[in-house]
Each structure stands twice: as structure tokens, then as C-alpha cells.
Automatic annotation (TrEMBL):
Protein name: Transcription antitermination protein NusB
Keywords: RNA-binding, Transcription, Transcription antitermination, Transcription regulation
Molecular function via GO: RNA binding
Cited Pfam families: NusB
UniProt KW rRNA-binding keyword: no
Gene3D superfamilies (alphabetical): NusB-like
Length: 144
């Protein structure tokens, strides 16, 4: 049976959201999420890598995100911020996942959990970010 990465992203998003609101340690958040009724069906390794990696590397990931924003990162909704952290983590650390898949998955998360038009904002930011972080993949050309 193929493990579900979409649900892994969804649970990682919930974990990042919880972290922003409560400041709970990653071990506590991860343990709580592992109790989710559908956890056995997800890609456990991808979930853990995204949750732990996005929290551990948050400052570096935010440094990639901020230049693509039209406002300070702190002014984003916690959901949009968490989605952008997850997608940026995948852009940087999972180059085997095509950038379009990362963007599409982030848009789906934003549609499901974000504000009314939050998915449009997430899409715009990630399009800009992909061009910077995955230049070769996006343009098909090697940087000069």
C-alpha cells in the first residue's frame, strides 16, 4: 500500500500551526499527531522530516520566503505561514519532488485550511520562490 504524502503534509501543517500558537516542543506535537486516526496511512518518514525540519530550519526557510512577500512574515496568518514553511522546506530539502507538485500541494492545503483567497497568495509567493530556489527546474536552464 502506498503511503499518503498529502495527509502527511496536512498533519505537518497542523503541527506547525500548533507550534506557532503554543510554542510546544516538537516531540510533544509529533506525539500528539501520531495519535491521529489516519496516521497509519501516511508517509511517516516524510511527515517527520517536514515537521522536524521546518521547525529546526525555520529561520533559514523564512529568509528564503521573506523577499517574496509583500509584507513582513509576522503579518501572515499562522496557516499561510505554516504552509509556506512546509513548501519551502520541500523546495530546499526534497528536490526529488517536482516544484509544481510542491506548489499544488500547498495550494490544496491553503484551500482547505486558509482564508478565502489565501491560496492565491500562497501560489504567488511560491511561484516567485520556486524561480529563485529551483531555478534550473523552473527555467530549464542552468544559472549563468
Amino acid at each position: 500500500m502506498k503511503k499518503n504524502r498529502r495527509k502527511a503534509r496536512e498533519l505537518a501543517l497542523q503541527g506547525l500551526y500548533q507550534r506557532q500558537l503554543t510554542g510546544d516542543p516538537v516531540d510533544v506535537i509529533e506525539a500528539q499527531l501520531r495519535e491521529h486516526e489516519e496516521f497509519a496511512k501516511i508517509d511517516d518518514a516524510h511527515f517527520a522530516a517536514m515537521l522536524r525540519g521546518a521547525i529546526k530550519d525555520a529561520a533559514a526557510l523564512e529568509a528564503h520566503i521573506q523577499p517574496c512577500l509583500d509584507r513582513p512574515l509576522e503579518e501572515l496568518s499562522p496557516v499561510e505561514r505554516a504552509i509556506l514553511l512546509l513548501a519551502t522546506y520541500e523546495f530546499v530539502h526534497h528536490i526529488e519532488i517536482p516544484y509544481r507538485v510542491v506548489i499544488n500541494e500547498a495550494i490544496e492545503l491553503a484551500k482547505g485550511y486558509g482564508g478565502t483567497d489565501g491560496y492565491k497568495y500562497v501560489n504567488g509567493v511560491l511561484d516567485k520562490l520556486a524561480a529563485k530556489v529551483r531555478t534550473v527546474e523552473v527555467t530549464g536552464k542552468k544559472p549563468a
